[in-house]
């Protein structure tokens, strides 16, 4: 199916949004990346902030007139699509107790064995679409439908940093301690966000990640002697 | 300007006191909230009357019952909630700049009207800059709130007498309005006309479950909008949750969200709402672009 052109809607005198009526996928992400590149090059002086979601790009303009100018020009703009990155990050994840605190119940709810669930979760390549929710939190696309699970009715008061969890149609890693309503299936020893480093994250939009199961002994070792993430 | 160092010590404090400057707009692409003051009107005013740089860091005080000691002379200003303030046990006029002597003790009592008080200091507070901002945010700055015993550095200045220079005029009751103006949000069109009518005609009450992340409103609105993909949200975005509650996002809110984004409050209305106390009523009125 071909993705039609985005719609631009003005929200406030200074804010607007490019919006696609399409489900999140690689092709849509390619288009978004192309649009963001165009905005950053052709409208660098006019824009104060660009924010990305699954099906939209939010733009904050420095002046009212800049948004009006963009509205008059945007139909004639043709961003150049580029292929998404080939980089695949390997994320060690310990699915064992006590790290995967909700793994057992999630497997039971799915009528699965835990190893089946671990295999289903660690097999796919997940695409990084954007960062949101918490500093350094990657929105990933690609969770197999069989693992979709509604969020908890009552969120946990505190989820450990590095927790790998499933919520709705998504999977993700909590970069920092936070309340959370997702089902925790494991934990990574990696640091996901460093406010004193620029950029504060190691991955980029368009990269893919793969969860690599590790034992609790390996987890203990990596928590004591942290190593930077690796990619292939 | 004489620039010796001063230290502000928190002798007594309620919860919810933070340092705020204009925040971190350049880092949202990594999921970092913008932070910054809940009430920008008052934040800008305290810096304005001190003739500070507009990004100077101030104290945002969300609870009464604060006692502070300033180690060295300085000049401060207050705006936002109307508070009972004493300097060395003498009542002070909070509408004017307040010169503080060395070892001055400032006490902030009850917040009469409004719920957030801003305290600016000439030259701005000097807490560390992380990701281009001094605004507190858990796990970005080393502290998330100021507690008893904490110390905040500032630059000591000798208050100028400025003969013949009158204090700028300011109506401290500016936030005593109930109407909040909004622009239709990206998902506004998904509301049924019945639900839209409900939002425009009913009054909403500020819930106690409110923080710098978001101000929750008590009354429910039926939500018939299907689940949506996660997309950008901003301070002032009004989300309609799956449980039918309205949440007005604050400066520490996440940068993207999955609930329908039905309204976007004007900046002025965001400040008005920030000054509402739990239990106060607000109404929404639509503003045309």
Dominant shape of chain B: elongated
Low-pLDDT segments of chain A = none
- What share of residues are in beta strands of chain B? 35-45%
- What pair of chains forms the biggest interface? A-B, 41 and 31 residues
Radius of gyration of chain A: 20 Å
CA-based shape of chain A = elongated
Number of domains of chain B: 2
Please mark out the parts of chain B with pLDDT under 50 across 5 or more consecutive residues, or reply none: none
Give the domain tally of chain A. Answer: 2
Q: Report the total helices of chain B.
A: 3
Pfam families (chain B): CT_A_B (PF02626)
Protein name (chain B): Biotin-dependent carboxylase-like uncharacterized protein
Domain Carboxyltransferase (chain B): 29-289
InterPro entries (chain B): CT_A_B, Cyclophilin-like_dom_sf, PxpC
Notes on the structure:
Chain A contains 5 helices and 14 strands. Chain A has helices spanning 26-42, 64-73, 103-109, 114-122, 216-224; strands at 7-12, 15-19, 47-52, 56-61, 88-94, 126-131, 138-141, 156-159, 163-167, 170-173, 178-180, 183-187, 208-214, 230-231. Chain B folds into 2 domains: 5-155, no CATH class; 179-286, Cyclophilin-like (Cyclophilin), CATH 2.40.100. In chain B, strand 5 and strand 6 (90-91) form a beta hairpin. At the A-B interface, strand 1, strand 2, strand 3 and strand 4 of A face strand 13 and strand 16 of B.
């Amino acid at each position: 199916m071909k993705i039609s052109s985005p719609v631009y809607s003005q929200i406030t005198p200074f804010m607007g949004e490019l919006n696609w009526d399409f489900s999140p996928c690689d092709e849509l992400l390619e288009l978004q990346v192309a649009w963001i590149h165009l905005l950053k090059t052709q409208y660098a002086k006019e824009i104060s902030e660009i924010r990305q979601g699954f099906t939209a790009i939010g733009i904050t303009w420095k002046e009212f007139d800049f948004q009006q100018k963009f509205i008059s020009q945007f139909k004639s703009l043709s961003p150049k699509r580029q292929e998404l990155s080939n980089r695949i990050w390997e994320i060690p994840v310990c699915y064992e107790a006590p790290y995967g605190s909700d793994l057992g119940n999630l497997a039971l709810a799915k009528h699965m064995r835990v190893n089946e669930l671990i295999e289903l979760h660690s097999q796919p390549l997940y695409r990084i679409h954007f960062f949101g929710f918490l500093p350094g939190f990657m929105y990933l696309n690609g969770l197999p439908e069989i693992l979709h699970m509604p969020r908890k009715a009552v969120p946990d008061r505190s989820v450990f940093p590095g927790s790998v969890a499933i919520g709705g149609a998504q999977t993700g890693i909590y970069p920092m301690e936070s309340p959370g309503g997702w089902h925790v299936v494991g934990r990574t020893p990696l640091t996901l966000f460093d406010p004193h480093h620029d950029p504060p994250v190691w991955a980029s939009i368009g990269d893919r990640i793969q969860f690599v199961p590790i034992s609790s002994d390996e987890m203990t070792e990596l928590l004591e002697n942290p190593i930077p993430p690796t990619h292939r | 300007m004489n620039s010796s160092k001063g230290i502000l010590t928190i002798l007594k404090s309620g919860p919810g006191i933070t340092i705020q400057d204009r925040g971190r707009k350049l880092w949202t692409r990594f999921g970092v909230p913008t932070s910054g003051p809940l009430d920008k009107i008052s934040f800008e005013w305290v810096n304005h009357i001190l003739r500070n740089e507009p990004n100077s860091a101030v104290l945002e005080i969300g609870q009464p019952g604060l006692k502070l000691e300033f180690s060295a002379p300085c000049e401060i200003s207050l705006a936002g909630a109307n508070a009972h303030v004493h300097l060395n046990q003498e009542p002070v006029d909070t509408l004017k700049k307040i010169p503080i002597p060395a070892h001055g003790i400032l006490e902030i009592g009850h917040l009469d009207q409004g719920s957030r008080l801003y305290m600016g200091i000439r030259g701005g507070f000097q807490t560390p800059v992380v990701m281009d901002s001094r605004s507190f945010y858990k796990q970005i700055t080393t502290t998330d709130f100021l507690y008893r015993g904490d110390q905040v550095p500032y630059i000591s200045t000798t208050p100028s007498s400025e003969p013949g220079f009158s204090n700028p005029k300011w109506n401290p009751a500016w936030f005593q309005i109930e109407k909040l103006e909004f622009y239709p949000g990206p998902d506004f069109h998904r509301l049924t006309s019945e639900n839209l009518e409900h939002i425009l005609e009913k009054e909403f009450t500020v819930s106690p479950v409110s923080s710098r992340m978001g101000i929750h409103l008590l009354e429910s609105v039926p939500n018939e909008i299907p689940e949506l993909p996660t997309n950008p949200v901003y301070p002032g975005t009004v989300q309609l949750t799956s449980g039918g509650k309205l949440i007005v996002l604050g400066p520490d809110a996440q940068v993207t969200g999955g609930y329908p984004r039905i309204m976007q409050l004007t900046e002025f209305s965001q400040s008005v709402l920030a000054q509402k106390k739990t239990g106060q009523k607000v109404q929404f009125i639509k503003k045309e672009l």
